[in-house]
Write a structure and sequence with these properties.
- The protein is α+β, with helices and mostly antiparallel strands.
- The chain has 2 domains: 108 residues, Tetratricopeptide repeat domain (Serine Threonine Protein Phosphatase 5, Tetratricopeptide repeat, Alpha Horseshoe); 116 residues, ADP-ribosylation fold (Alpha-Beta Barrel), CATH 3.20.170.40.
- It contains 8 helices and 7 strands; from the N terminus they run H-H-H-H-H-H-E-E-E-H-E-E-E-E-H.
- Helix 1 runs antiparallel to helix 2, helix 4 runs antiparallel to helix 5 and helix 5 runs antiparallel to helix 6.
- The protein starts with 7 loop residues before the first helix and ends in a 7-residue tail after the last helix.
Length: 247
């Protein structure tokens, strides 16, 4: 399953998060409930339930919605949701703790820890850029950030979402054409902390980072390209982004 930012339920959740940021929790809650009511797939129901849960005022209701989100995530059980398991089980543990059920709180905290930093994604993986490279070349860390040029990146980033790599290529600095390379990590890697558990639970875009080189093994030319208007909005988001890049 591939993350789709144009999915209507995802869009409703994004609108809800925008309302949260504007200090309008009631409007956010309404949008999240609308997302839940319109959800049809397991992934849509997982995402919507996750956000409905955090707007519940009563702990039993928060527990019920968190359990609902977890059950749908467990049904999916692929690399788009596995990174969400630590936060889901931690949220469950907090609910049980608040209810005075220390045994269940401890059990869920232990499960949350057991999922931490366990990556199972085997790709294929992609890296988007405007650089003209060849099969066998190595991509290495140490370059300037595409989003904050003064920042030197200690890691190099990649994704298992080909359309995400295509977007990164479109947003990359330079005058070359957009290139999406198929890559192989040459060392260990971890979830990208700039996206994991930020807007969406877990790492649905399957974005990662590593300090080891990435070896180019191929190139793809077929991905969903953004319209000029969509790219304009993405560039505005990048330019107006608040918060520090974690590297």
């Amino acid at each position: 399953m591939e993350f789709d930012p144009n999915n209507n339920v995802v869009k409703l959740c994004v609108q809800g998060m925008d309302m949260e940021g504007k200090g309008k929790p009631e409007e956010a809650s309404r949008l999240f409930l609308q997302a839940w009511n319109e959800a049809t797939t397991d992934f849509e129901k997982f995402i919507a339930a996750y956000y409905v849960a955090r707007h519940q005022k009563d702990v039993p209701d928060k527990l019920r919605w968190t359990e609902t989100g977890l059950q749908f995530a467990l049904k999916i059980n692929d690399d788009t949701v596995k990174a969400a398991f630590p936060s889901l089980y931690s949220n469950l543990a907090k609910c049980y703790d608040d209810l005075g059920d220390l045994a269940n709180a401890r059990k869920n905290y232990e499960i949350a820890v057991s999922f931490t930093d366990k990556l199972s994604d085997r790709g294929p993986f992609y890296h988007g850029t405007k650089a003209d490279l060849q099969v066998g070349d190595l991509l290495t860390a140490g370059g300037n950030s595409n989003y904050t040029p003064k920042v030197i990146m200690n890691h190099i980033y990649f994704t298992a979402w080909v359309n995400g790599a295509g977007l990164a290529a479109a947003l990359a600095k330079g005058d070359g054409r957009e290139r999406v390379y198929i890559i192989e990590p040459t060392g260990s890697f971890e979830n990208d902390p700039n996206v994991t558990d930020k807007k969406f639970p877990g790492n649905p875009t399957r974005s990662y980072r590593t300090k080891a080189p990435l070896k180019i093994v191929g190139e793809v030319t077929d991905w969903v390209r953004q319209t000029p208007e969509e790219l304009r909005k993405w560039r505005e988001k990048v330019a107006n982004a608040k918060g520090k890049i974690i590297d």
